[in-house]
UniProtKB/TrEMBL annotation, chain A:
Alphabetic keyword roster: Membrane, Transmembrane, Transmembrane helix
InterPro entries (alphabetical): DUF1468
Record-given protein name: Tripartite tricarboxylate transporter TctB family protein
Transmembrane stretches, start-end: 129-147
Ranges for domain DUF1468: 9-152
From TrEMBL, chain B:
Organism the protein comes from: Halomonas dongshanensis
Keywords: Membrane, Transmembrane, Transmembrane helix
Transmembrane segments: 20-39, 110-135, 147-162, 169-186, 206-224, 259-280, 324-343, 355-379, 391-417, 429-447, 470-487
Record has NAD as a keyword: no
Origin organism lineage: Bacteria, Pseudomonadati, Pseudomonadota, Gammaproteobacteria, Oceanospirillales
Residues annotated as domain DUF112: 20-439
UniProt name for this protein: Tripartite tricarboxylate transporter permease
Length: 158, 495
């Protein structure tokens, strides 16, 4: 059996997505009155188009720069490897989203900003904290006091 | 001669000291607000309504026109420096503006953006003054089939720019349209692809996708390419001065895109976004060094910037002459005018010439202020890039979060932002272009609506799209825009 190339793997995934999308398109309720075009037609056209494009992609030769690889660098632990950094950042962003309302914008944003900056390797912690806190406070005050945009206060009194 | 006399009358109003102060304040406030992701021209104008409420209508509209211009230019700044376009009209600017900033040419990119915006705005004001009544008639003749065809052309023009793979460009466009139709179908009230989630009923906002696909994905990508604190400090700003050859190089793109942008802006619904994308794709096609677009080509900044500013002015044509807002932003302006007791429309020229010509004259003055104000500020703004990279990455993350949360107040949208960031990273790693996805997301709803309206008019007969001459011509152009690059590629291979 021959090995599948990157485009062929991607085409299979996209074909699956298109299949799921089409299955859901058929579940969209149609309007009781007869009309030339209903809510389900456009999604069906899109689903079939994606399926067709997935077939085209399957037979397309991948270009040399098609799939870029991450630069490998000698990492001390998997956490500090390039992919480790991406995963930690993604988890931190998700945690931020969940903590934003209970902890408040200023606290959550400062923790996220200063914490990730230190994690990425910046060692001047005082400058880090002062800069992040300054920017966060400036944004917070501009949004809440000048623009009247509400941001959660959380545990802080203001 | 009449136009000139009227313009002189307009200048008489716009050059009153109080109105000059309003233009200046508007441009300044708009630039600052536009720089913040999530706060584009619509938010900026909405914020001005309570301020302009008690003003003389001509002064109020003059202030708002300044805010509008300023916000569009402010949006370009965050596109160029952070790859975080807060406004749809400045997405195309980031394609070459951000690579220029990464090469240490941020100052030049911002200066080109300022000059191009100035010229685009000025050229289109001349057009607005001369041909507004005539153009409004043409814009009215555009029905649903023509709009659908225009949207298709806008999309194919951008897809055809996908150098590596046309198929991947088309896939990105289809996915963009798929995202755009999530939520309640406004024509029938049917839920589509909401997975039972209340948060998805209103659909997915452009800003969440744009910040995810561009800014957050860029942060992830930089981390993947070894984005710790190891990068040597660089001269982030570079020179603001343009050499004679550079001026020559951008003169053509700016003048062509200004005209194209204006005419696109006149069409309701098209506006700055399509204008900037069309300007970019036209220049990429025409340029001898078109293959360097996307890598920091100065023409790639000049073209969309002049086009989007010209389109902003163009969008005043249907507003002032027909009373029909062509975009979300001009809809807010219409609301503001009504609040001030002015009814825009065919009679406005006769009933309120002071407002009509005063605004046109103030646009000239606003453009000059935009240039005078922004050029000296560029070195200060571009200092952002001198920051240590770990700090800059974290601050971009916070900017994205506040942009999204400040707009929707939804934690769910923050998680969506993360999802789109990861999708953007995947697209980048596997060579899928992001531009068609974003444009398709913006156009998807209008495209479907136009298609369905056209088919309702024709009773389900698809030939309506080729029976109408304008629609047919636009669709032929769309096919050509996809076919020609394919033929070019084949010829290259044969040679």
């Amino acid at each position: 059996m021959t090995r599948l190339n990157t485009n062929q793997w991607l085409a299979l995934v996209l074909a699956l997505v298109a299949g799921g999308y089409l299955a859901m398109a058929w579940q969209i309720p149609t309007f009781p009155l007869p009309r030339p075009i209903d809510s389900d037609l456009f999604p069906k056209v899109l689903g079939f188009t994606l399926l067709l494009l997935a077939v085209c992609l399957f037979f397309e030769t991948p270009s040399a720069a098609g799939a870029e690889e991450a630069e490998e660098e000698p990492a001390t632990s998997p956490l500090f490897s390039p992919w480790g950094r991406v995963i930690v950042t993604a988890v931190a962003v998700a945690a931020y989203a969940l903590l934003l309302v209970p902890a408040g914008f200023v606290l959550a944003s400062t923790l996220l900003g200063a914490g990730l900056t230190a994690f990425y390797g910046y060692r001047r912690h005082v400058i880090n904290l002062v800069t992040v806190l300054g920017v966060v406070l400036a944004l917070y005050l501009t949004m809440t006091r000048v623009m009247d945009v509400y941001l959660p206060t959380g545990v802080l009194p203001f | 001669m009449d136009a000139l006399n009227n313009l002189m009358y307009g200048f008489g109003i716009a050059l009153e000291p109080i109105n000059i102060a309003y233009v200046f304040a508007g441009v300044f406030a708009g630039t600052i607000i536009g720089m913040l992701p999530g706060l584009g021209p619509i938010s900026a104008l909405a914020l001005m309504i309570p301020i302009t409420f008690a003003m003389e209508p001509s002064s109020g509209l003059i202030l708002m026109a300044g805010v509008y211009y300023g916000a569009i230019f402010g949006g370009s700044t965050s596109s160029i420096l952070l790859n975080a376009p807060g406004v749809a009209g400045t997405v195309a600017t980031s394609f070459d503006g951000y690579p220029m900033a990464k090469k240490g040419m941020a100052g030049k990119a911002l200066a080109i953006a300022a000059y191009a915006s100035f010229i685009g705005g000025t050229v289109s004001v001349v057009f607005l003054m001369l041909v507004a009544p005539l153009l409004s008639k043409v814009a009215v003749s555009f029905g649903p089939p023509e709009y659908f065809a225009l949207m298709v052309l806008g999309l194919t023009a951008v897809v055809s720019l996908s150098d590596k793979s046309l198929v991947k460009g088309l896939i990105a466009a289809v996915v963009g349209i798929m995202i755009s139709i999530v939520g309640i179908d406004l024509q029938t009230g049917t839920e589509r692809y909401t997975f039972g989630s209340i948060q998805l009923l209103d659909g997915i906002d452009f800003l969440v996708v744009a910040l995810g696909i561009f800014a957050l994905a860029e942060v992830f990508y930089m981390l993947l390419r070894g984005g710790g604190g190891k990068e040597a400090p660089r001269n982030a700003i570079g020179s603001l001065k343009l050499s004679r050859s550079e001026v020559k190089e951008i003169a053509g793109p700016i003048s062509r895109s200004s005209v194209l942008g204006f005419f696109t802006g006149v069409l309701p619904g098209a506006g700055a976004t399509i204008g900037s994308f069309l300007g970019y794709s036209m220049e990429k096609r025409l340029a001898k060094d078109g293959d360097t677009f996307g890598q920091g080509n100065i023409k790639g900044v000049a073209a969309p910037e002049s086009a989007n500013n010209a389109a902003c002015t163009g969008s005043f044509v249907p507003l002032l002459t027909l009373g029909v807002p062509g975009s979300g932003t001009t809809a807010v302006l219409l609301g503001a005018l009504l609040v001030m007791g002015v009814n825009p429309g065919p009679m406005m020229l006769e009933q309120r010439p002071d407002v009509f010509w005063g605004v046109i004259a103030s646009m000239y003055i606003g453009n000059i202020f935009l240039l005078v104000l922004n050029l000296p500020l560029i070195p200060l703004i571009a200092k952002i890039l001198d920051m240590p990279k770990p700090l800059l990455l974290s601050l971009i993350l916070i900017f994205c979060m506040i942009g999204v949360y400040g707009m929707s107040f939804s934690v769910f949208d923050l998680l969506l932002l993360l999802g789109f960031g990861l999708l953007g990273l995947g697209m980048r790693l596997f060579g899928f272009p992001a531009a068609p996805l974003i444009l398709a997301l913006i156009l998807g709803n209008i495209m479907e609506e136009s298609m369905r309206r056209a088919l309702q008019i024709s009773g389900g007969d698809w030939s309506i799209f080729i029976d109408k001459p304008i629609s047919l011509a636009l669709l032929v152009l769309a096919v050509l825009s996809l076919g020609l690059p394919l033929l070019k590629k084949r010829r290259k291979r044969a040679v």
